[in-house]
Amino acid sequence: MTSADHALALPASLSLAGRVALVTGASRGIGRAIARTLAARGAAVAVNYSSREDAALELCAQISADGGKAIAVRFDVADPAAVDAGVQQVVAALGGLHILVNNAGVSIDALLLRANPDDFSRLLDVNLKGAFLCCKAAARHLLKARADGRIINLSSVVGEQGNAGQSMYAAAKAGILGLTKSLARELAGRGVTVNAVTPGFIDTDMTAAALQGEARAALIKQIPLARIGQPDEIAEAVAFLAAPAASYITGHVMRVNGGLLI
Amino acid sequence: MTTTKTNDIEAKVIAIVCEQLDVRAEDVSPGKTFTEDLGADSLAIVELVLAFEEAFSLKIPDNEVDNIKTVGNAIDYIKKNASGAN
User: What is the pLDDT of residues A12-60, one digit of tens each?
Assistant: First the structure.
């Protein structure tokens, strides 16, 4: 059974058939899982990447092999002109844009006393300004999509509760929540919904170094579900928010953290 | 600019206004204001401007947008600034 067949078998309220989705930072990790899941629900997916072309093309091939539709689109989310051109490319290639998933992000951790202001600028540029620029470039297309229009921003549990050694990352991720709630109010008049997902600790390349040995064991002790999460578990939440089923949910922060923050 | 062309612009502007604001052509005339008469909210004004920009291949700066309050204002602005457009 291809993923297109699966999409037909889905209840209409969960199907993304006929929708076009752009997922930023989709070549690896959580973004990759989101792109695969949205494609499996029937969406045509634009896989944005900044450097890992090999991984992005491999993902597109995998989605195609599963019966879905995907194209790879290269742009740096922190570059306004590149974002505009990238969104235009998606709209031209896939015939519109209904769902924007702002997932692209970098992680730079340091205790405040050792933190580098240039690192903070870079982190804000990608994680926060990048999401803002993508929202801005996509907005006119999402407004045309009316009640099918969706923005889903990836924040973090760290943006909600803070974390020693992650002040820069937490500040950017908390900023995402303010962006989400403001745009939810701004775009609601056309039925476009804007929500955030705040993952807890998830197994990806980005967290691999931090989630080793004793640190991993200590962290798991704080998580009621007693394990690190998987990228697919974030993708499921994003796919739900993207679906018609979530049409009355906007400005919401959906926690997917195993109970780490309740 | 020929008369035919200016009439074309007027017709196109009215068609865009009808589509964007979901109003009937007979309710649209140059004297009508977008907000009070035609029911546009702030987001609708932005969408309308984007639609004009796209249709007439021009860029309307924010300070000019503030001066476009009626259908007639939009027609005049576009006639003045879209001479090179198709």
Answer: 999 999 999 999 999 999 999 999 999 999 999 999 999 999 999 999 9
ipTM, interface predicted TM-score of the complex: 0.76
Give the count of domains, chain B: 1
* Structural domain boundaries, residue B38: 3-81
Query: CA of B3 to nearest chain A CA: how many angstroms apart?
Result: 33
- Reported pTM: 0.91
Give a yes or no: residue B86 inside a domain.
no
Cα–Cα distance for residue pair A211/A260, rounded to 1 Å: 15
**Domain A3-255: CATH superfamily, name plus number:** NAD(P)-binding Rossmann-like Domain (3.40.50.720)
Contact B43 A189 (CB under 8 A): yes
Q: Does B50 touch chain A (CB under 8 A)?
A: yes
Q: Is A198 helix (H, G, I), strand (E, B) or coil?
A: strand
CB distance A134 to A97 below 8 Å: no
